Amino acid sequence: MFRYIQKEAGYLIRRMGLAGRRFKPAMNQIEGYTQTIKDAGLYPDKFVAYSGPDVKMKVSINGKKPVWVTQFCANNSLGLAVDPEVVKAAEKALQAYKSTSCSGSPALCGKIGIHEELEEEIAGFKQNRCATLFMTGWMANIAIVDAIANLLPTEVPGFRNDEDIVVFSDRLNHASIVAGLGIAKIESMMSKHIHGHVKVIQYNHNDVKDLENKIKKYIHRNEKLMVVSDAVFSMDGDIAPLPEILELAGKYRGVVVMDEAHSTGTIGKTGRGIVEHFGLSKNKVESSGSELIHMTTLSKFAAGVGGCVISNNEAFNDLMHISPYHIYTSVLPPSVAAGCLAAFRKLRKNPQLVTKLQKNSAYMRNGLKEMGFDVRGETHVIPVVLPGKTDVHLFGKELFEKHRIFVSAVYAFAASPRLRLTASAMHTKEDTDLLLSSMETVGKKFNVIG
Ligand SMILES: Cc1ncc(COP(=O)(O)O)c(C=O)c1O
After folding, report:
1. Distances (CA, A) of 295 to 89, 268, 358, 431
2. CB of 174 closer than 6 A to ligand 1?
3. Which of 68, 75, 105, 387 is deepest in the core (most CB within 10 A)?
4. Which of 75, 133, 138 to mutate to test the pocket of ligand 1 (most atoms within 8 A of CB)?
5. Is the CB of 230 inside a 6 Å radius of any atom of ligand 1?
6. Is the pTM above the cut of 0.85?
7. pLDDT tens digits, 391-419
8. Into which CATH architecture does domain 102-332 fall?
9. Which CATH class is domain 54-82+351-445?
10. Residues 6+ positions from 213 with CB-CB distance below 8 Å
């Protein structure tokens, strides 16, 4: 007995010794990693605003004294987040419900009348039958991908999910789509109730030929097909070729998912998004054979925060209602939902806001191009790519500190280095001229333009 205890104790001591030698505290690695990011000058500046996302904003950078700047980086593309009518609607809801929160998930006690009105308003605006709200666009994207790939990881008596699916995803899709695809693959591996496999294939950005070749290569009989893409790409400002995607996916009766975070309220004559932009009739979409699902955020033109999944398919909408990303989280507070509702209604009654945004975008784009900047895309999201050796971070800082112009300098994590500018319907010609003259001065100083 004693020998047995001695042996076991020896084993334990050896294990503890090994553990001490072999396993480093996880936090050490994290410290090392973040420090390396900082040392490489890749850690983003910290901006804190002391006013709303209006044209003029009071902003502090890295803890310094706040200053007033002219802003070309917010997603408040129609100005509705600072519109007095929208702000009033949010205030009124706060008073009507005498509450700052709904204190529950929609499956429990959280859903209120305004949520239903907002879902109806958004479905109507997007000329679809159904809509389901989510806490963020990020979660809405994950919910869509998860549901189409796996249905839900819930055992349903008498139902077996054993179909394989191949998902084709644009190489430059938003991080939330990428996260959704990762989760969908893991769910299918982990859940006892999912027997089908999820395969994810990336295709080259907006490259219809590459998509077609990959569909031919990877889709076999009896596999489901989904194509997912940003409608307006958040860092590139260009537009997905929806008509061609619908046609390709339609041959396989596939699902096409359009992330309309940056396209609702901004493209199409009245801001209805990518379908209106391409002049696609309901018939045309339906006759393609594809099922089209839209996601839109409420955090861009719509003056709030939240996500919404929109479709013509009631069964799919019912599935969204029982998605874990809908059930196991809260709902939008009354004031936020009411603000978003007012924003959609205001847009519906004032399509001239979209015309103004599109005119402002074209004026800004053309001005920058004429000066010799490398301007990409075609929408209100205006990326300016600087030549290889130019320090994008310093360029952005110079604009901020010397010219009081606030643009997003993207130099780490998201995309290849660039300045990301956004136009808004709020900007006057004088605002944009101020941006253009500042860009010219800084562009010359940094030898980006002649
Ligand atoms: C293309 C795209 N999709 C989804 C999202 C996520 O939206 P939300 O901010 O509502 O989570 C964003 C936000 O930046 C986005 O740009």
Report:
1. 24, 16, 22, 32
2. yes
3. 75
4. 138
5. yes
6. yes
7. 999 999 999 999 999 999 998 776 688 99
8. 3-Layer(aba) Sandwich (3.40)
9. alpha beta
10. none
